[in-house]
Write a structure and sequence with these properties.
alpha/beta; 7-stranded parallel β-sheet; about 35% helix; globular; disordered N terminus; disordered C terminus
């Protein structure tokens, strides 16, 4: 089977591995999917050794063209996807870069284009190409910059020879989305492809540079202050309203640990606590949580700020190397953040300073949440300090995204004229 044919077959499975994920998860059918991915998502020694960075193919003057290699998706407002569209819109608006989205899977281009247009007005007339055949892959036009956004899309970009700089938009340590097995190994290999890294947080930049000898730039995530801001008045004293971002089947969000915790919190605080969930469509009764939590499902992005402002406390569970946007948005909305201890997120979350941290055990989390609820007024300075930090460090998307453009224009300046970046790191 040719490489093009393998890439063509990629569409059969790619939709299952979205940037944002969905309820239902990947674990129940892991073996079947891992076998399919092992056959379809592939590379050889020739591709691993070939030149990946071709600055001679980057136009000296604009307008430039940027290709974004994306999986098929069903919802454009999950954090990872929305950040990609935010960057693309910024590059077009501020720097005149033409944006083209390459969908590595089978999906109607008109539907994808419509969802992208919902995110940012600058992208309403964007071009969408769907790789639904080997011919479509062969017909991808040239670009100055090409960006892989998920590990499976990195395999597609690896074989492209009609682009200048190749980038990897790294928003988490994606091998950790899977058991330490075949798919983990395939995902980890992509960090050795020799792409320049654009890392969402300093921890991911360090991971890419220190563990895989990559060259990367990191940006610090911000929040949209038109959506996420504190309430105009104090929240009611009782009941304490607690929010949890709940997505069953997405292991990195710690759903099982959180649900065990929330059940205990409700048992101890009773009518003094109201627990609200959102983030995915699922029924509390399916998990024995009737009368314990209320699930609002998947909310429109613009409505999430109002929800967070109504909540005294928000629990943010993340087991991988990105904290998600949730703690930032909760802090910006004046909520007290409770999170699990995670060394990768120490750049943001500091126990007793801007949040409360807990070891990832159900009882420790329960005790931390009960403490937060029973001592909510006394913890006001933690909330105030978090709000000030958001205002000073996480409120200016334009400055943050301009730094990405500077890196994309001259990525080698990140570490001097580094030799052999064009080869996969060994």
């Amino acid at each position: 089977m040719t490489t093009s044919e393998r890439l063509f077959r990629l569409r059969r499975r790619i939709g299952r591995y979205l940037l944002a994920g969905r309820a239902g998860g990947i674990w129940s059918e892991y073996a079947d999917d891992a076998l399919a991915l092992a056959n379809v998502v592939d590379c050889d020694f020739h591709k691993l050794a070939q030149v990946q960075q071709r600055p001679d193919r980057v136009a000296r003057e604009g307008p430039h063209v940027c290709h974004w290699y994306l999986p098929s998706f069903d919802h454009p407002f999950y954090g990872g996807l929305f950040t990609i569209f935010r960057v693309a819109a910024h590059l077009k608006r501020r720097h005149g870069v033409r944006q083209r989205f390459i969908i590595c899977g089978n999906a109607p281009a008109s539907r994808i284009r419509g969802m992208i247009a919902q995110t940012f007005v600058e992208l309403a007339d964007c071009e969408v190409l769907v790789l639904d055949s080997a011919e479509a892959i062969a017909a991808i036009p040239p670009a100055d910059f090409s960006v892989a956004t998920l590990w499976t899309t990195a395999y597609v970009l690896l074989g492209m020879e009609n682009t200048g700089y190749k980038f990897y938009f790294i928003q988490d340590f994606e091998p950790a989305f899977y058991p330490a097995g075949s798919t983990y190994a395939q995902a980890e290999l992509t960090y050795r492809f020799g792409f320049y890294g654009i890392a969402n947080t300093v921890s991911l930049r360090h991971m890419y540079e220190q563990n895989y000898n990559g060259i990367a730039h990191h940006f610090t995530p911000c929040v949209d202050r038109s959506i996420f801001f504190p309430p105009s008045a104090e929240r009611p004293a009782s009941p304490i309203r607690l929010f949890y971002y709940a997505r069953p089947g997405i292991p990195r969000n710690g759903f099982e640990l959180a649900m065990t915790t929330l059940r205990r919190v409700k048992q101890r605080l009773g009518s003094g606590i109201e627990i609200v969930c959102a983030g995915a469509d699922w029924q509390p009764s399916d998990f024995g949580l009737s009368g314990i939590v209320t699930n609002l499902g998947l909310l429109p992005y613009a409505e999430t700020g109002g929800l967070y402002r109504s909540c005294h406390i928000g629990i943010a569970m993340m087991m991988t190397k990105h904290p998600s946007y949730l703690p930032l948005e909760l802090m910006a909305s004046g909520s007290l953040v409770v999170a699990n201890e995670n060394p990768a997120n120490r750049w943001l979350l500091r126990d007793g300073e801007n949040c409360l941290l807990s070891p990832p055990s159900a009882e420790c989390l329960t005790q931390t949440l009960v403490r937060a609820a029973e001592n909510y007024p006394a913890l006001s300075e933690i909330r105030a300090r978090a709000g000030r930090e958001i205002e000073s460090r996480h409120s200016n998307w334009d400055t943050t995204l301009d730094s990405i453009w500077e890196f994309m224009r001259m990525p080698s300046r990140s570490r001097g004229e580094t030799a052999n970046l064009t080869r996969a790191a060994s």
